[in-house]
Design a protein that fits this description.
The complex is a heterodimer.
Chain A: H1 2-12, H2 14-32, H3 53-77, E1 78-79
Chain B: H1 8-18, H2 27-43, E1 48-55, E2 58-65, H3 67-86, H4 93-111, H5 115-134, H6 139-170, H7 185-197, H8 206-210, H9 218-238, H10 242-260, H11 265-286, H12 289-320, H13 336-349, H14 356-370, H15 374-400, H16 408-413, H17 419-437, H18 440-443, H19 449-453, H20 460-482, E3 492-493, H21 497-512, H22 514-570, H23 575-596
Antiparallel strand pairs in B: 1-2
Helix pairs in contact in B: 1-2, 1-4, 2-3, 3-4, 3-9, 3-12, 3-17, 4-5, 4-9, 5-6, 5-9, 5-23, 6-7, 7-9, 9-11, 9-12, 10-11, 10-15, 11-12, 11-14, 11-15, 12-13, 12-14, 12-17, 13-15, 13-17, 14-15, 14-17, 15-20, 21-22
The chains are: A mainly alpha, B mainly alpha.
Chain lengths: 86, 597
Amino acid sequence: MSLLRLIDFLRDRLPTVVRIGCAVLALLIVLDALPAVVDKAHAATAAEHLPGFWSVFGLLGCLVLVVLSKSIGHLGVSQREDYYDE
Amino acid sequence: MSNPWIHPALVLLLGGGVLPWVPRSAKKGFLLLVPLLAYGLVVVMPRGEFAHVEFLRWTLVFGRVDALSLVFAHIMSLMCIIGTLFGLQVEEDAQHIAAWVYVAGSLGAIFAGDLFTLFLFWELMAFSSVFLVWFRRRPQSTAAGFRYLLVHVAGGLSLLAGIILQVKATGSTAFVGFDVHQTTAAGYLILIGFLLNAAVPPLHAWLPDAYPEGTFNGSVFLSAFTTKTAVYALCRGFAGMELLVVLGVIMSLYGVVFAVIENDVRRLFAYHIVSQVGYMVAGVGIGTELAINGACAHAFAHILYKGLLFMGGGTVLKMTGETRMSELGGLYKKMPWTFLFTLIGGLSISAFPLFSGFVSKSMIVEAGFDEHLLWAGFLLNLAAIGTFYCNGLKVPYFVWFGKNQCTPEVWDRASDPPWNMRAAMGFTALLCVFIGVYTPYLYRMLPYPAAAAAYHPYTSYHIAETLQILLFTALAFFVLVKLRKIEPHRGTNVDLDWFYRLGGRAFLWLARKPVQAVDTGVGELYRLGGLRGLMKSAGAIREFDNRVIDGAVDGLAATVRRAGGQLRTAQRGALQENLTLVFAVAAVALVAFLLLA
């Protein structure tokens, strides 16, 4: 199956895929800093004019959400699988 | 009118009624034909008010057709085709009938022009959808179904009480916008009924409790209709109510937090219904033309990508018998197409550029920023991070890649599903991309087409913002995977259903222990103190009984026994069936009483 072959092709070259991914991330921040490419005239707040503002938001937001959710789990929300069984 | 207006719900109800008599060879064709016909009726439907029925002293309006009802009816009837195609191989007619009656309830509520008709179809949805859970036929599903039904009956009662007060106060049964600035008690009761169906916390726990317990195809229907019909009702009744902005933002994050720590794929998706409906509820609360457009567009897009995700989850369940991520992994080798379709659903819900969520969700966030609700805009963007983390990264990674934790049995069973399930997923995936690429298809259907035409999602800033948020979320995810911080493990997450699950047990304990003890004590006292006197009087009464009463009663008893024997043959004793019958009769009696009173 060709779809399967494509996935395996990418998996076999994982280091390259990771490198391309990192390059894309860097490129995003660079482009964000160029007013000719990304027009920030309609940004709602001043902070959004900082290059890479939403990158930091995404990265930190994800870490905050995971830490927050896991702490809520540890507060007693997460129980063993048979919790409701009698 | 040259052509009579035909209610699409009627087609589904009649189709369901005829289904058991359709010959086996024509069954699959018939199963597709009926929802196609209902969809066709919606597509060519003219606007206006149809099907006024004089009932006692009220006028019931079954067909209010305007832009708002049409966009919802369009997606509901489309989803009915997809859901039926996905479950085409299900042999049991009753499962298809339950699904169609459920869709008919949704369409009936959407086209209802008055509050009584709305209530009628609202209840039809609850009582038909519960069967999609019960048909899975395992003890947990039966229990979850009963909880689902009880909660919805409570919500329905609130709605009914509100309707009664509203009709008493205004003398009108029309279902139009309520005064959102000076909401009356009647308005709040109706609002509670709507919010419960929209799964707004703290009235949400029925959803992640029941939806993951449904059949593999039943949950695809469940994911679409109840909550989005409630979103429609909120758009119609409570647009611009500020409270809804707060509730919507809270629920968008609430769903995400619970999804992050969830292990079961379908329960994770269920929590993301709560989260995504939060965007819509917030949009209704913002209430501007752009926001209402956004709520409708997002409901439309959501039904498709959420259906697609539940089809992916349902396929994993059907083909492996397992939905816990801690027991899966590495499945891309066995079910690559299911992976691709689920990933497309995940990218759509995450609002990736070129996918449907991108052109719908952003309307609501932008409307929030436009109205200077900065906190709402930023928090909704935070929820978007969790959405991609769960649907676009966690599920695809831990089910199809990651560490292979399948048992040999699961691994052997796993494969891509039969053609009809692949076709349903493929078609829905195509629609998700189509809506994301060709925006006029969706935007032309929205209630405010001018505002929709003036909105452009593909600006350089919006694309840059979204790509940064999502791709850096992906970076954080893979770092966490590398650090082995987020591996799924078995467990149950306790939500607010704890109160009625364990509350019910506390009641049973109360009945068993203290009440039983008091009962025994009183019985003992009675035996010691009252028995002797009783024995004497009993002797006298026995004489009277033997001679006078028995003669009369024997005749009566024989009659009752005969009638009972006849009744016994008419019913099969399944609790669910009896309950449904009782509820149906009670509902009819209640409505009749209301109309006569």
